[in-house]
Amino acid sequence: MAQESNFRFLNGTSEAPIHSAVGASASDAALLDAYSQAVVSTAEKISPSVAKIDVTQRGRNRSGQERERQGGGSGFVFTPDGLILTNSHVVHDAIKITASFSDGRRFSADLIGDDPATDLAVIRIDAPGLIAAPLGDSQRLRVGQMAVAIGNPYGFQYTVTAGVVSALGRSLRSYSGRLIEDVIQTDASLNPGNSGGPLVTSAGQVVGVNTATILGAQGLCFAIGINTAKFVAGRLLREGRIRRSYIGIEAQTTVLHRRLVRFYDLPKESGVVVISVTQGSPAKQAGLREGDVIVALDGKPVAGVDDLHRLLTDARLGVSSPVTVLRWTEKLELQIVPEEAKG
After folding, report:
1. What is the per-residue pLDDT across 230-239, written as a single tens digit (0 to 9) for each?
2. Domain 1-242, CATH 2.40.10.120 — does that match?
3. In CATH terms, is domain 245-340 a member of 3.40.50.1820?
């Protein structure tokens, strides 16, 4: 059900980091305006927590031969005992992960868990003297607030860019095909290698995890809200994964005929048409067929594939739920028991 996307995720592959450090003396500080002071203060506070993530992943070339490839991105320490938040697409399927810091230290990292559906991951390093970045509240953000992004675009380590929060409540399709909700839009410049780095307020609090830009656009960059990241990180620490339910269909969003919408007094004018049903799946056992159009699950309207994804949470695992479908011109209610999605 994944749709082709024009979003560009920011995993970098450069292996030529350049170290740079600029300090301002007490006399220079007087020459800085308030905006510059805010950016400098934020960068100095958060940069020691930002890690450059280098990964080795196993893949195949065009002839099908197995080979290793290098990639990477950014991340930031969020607990003093070495837990680092980054993007799933940076570390997914990695066979080796290392994290390096602005003081020159470099550590091997272990993957705790990743969630492709929200493009978030947690890794751990064993290192003394780590500085955890303070986490803010993305729900309290306002459009127009200053936003500072810190990361490693194209391998240029600890690069700082600044802008504003351009919009809130955006939706972004992850590389797994699911929709990520409540995404922050910013014009702080992001490039490949920024993935997983922090988006920070002038108060020095992390409010987002940088993740993507739109190909061909300028000033349209996106970060996953830190409130989402806190929730996902908690689940990954407990279970190593996010549990979601699965019903076993291939489907796509479809527009409903107006007569059916009026006749059945449906709240939405679209639904999810079933393209195929997996043998032995909950959908097959419930009696769903190709061509059925799902318009509700457990009484909640389903206007499209993304609505169905949102409703298929871990709370529905093993629980019998009514699914409302249109079969030709007939409206049916079937009982379905979702199972846990694998992989």
Report:
1. 999 999 999 9
2. yes
3. no
